[in-house]
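hey
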């Protein structure tokens, strides 16, 4: 994953904004990235723009029944993918998303193992 350092700076309204620090790019080898973006349905476009995700009419990330986005292996839940809800809804949605991720990973593992057996048999 390509990253760069950021620092918090106040804007003209006195609100803090993350600002990229020039010439601080670095790369990290990762197996999993989890973005927790909080109550914000607009910023997912900024934070996830490079992924090529599809968005719905409310500017939220579009997901299927398993909460997978239009990009294979990328999942979204909560305020990034649905209208803001309070208390019970997000807990259930988190569980459903975890089940979708688990099913995806089990299927990925199964496909990998099946291919490996075909290659060695």
């Amino acid at each position: 994953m390509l990253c760069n350092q950021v620092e918090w700076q106040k804007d003209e309204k006195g609100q803090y904004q993350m600002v990229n620090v020039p010439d601080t790019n670095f790369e990290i080898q990762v197996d999993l990235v989890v973005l927790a973006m909080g109550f914000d349905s607009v910023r997912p476009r900024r934070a996830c723009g490079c992924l090529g995700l599809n968005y719905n009419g409310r500017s939220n990330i579009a997901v299927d029944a398993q909460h997978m986005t239009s990009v294979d292996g990328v999942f979204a839940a909560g305020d990034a993918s649905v209208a803001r809800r309070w208390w019970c809804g997000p807990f259930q949605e988190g569980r459903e998303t975890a089940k979708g991720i688990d099913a995806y990973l089990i299927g990925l593992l199964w496909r990998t193992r099946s291919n490996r057996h075909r290659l060695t048999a």
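Strands lie at 2-3, 6-10, 16-20, 26-27. The chain has one domain: 2-120.
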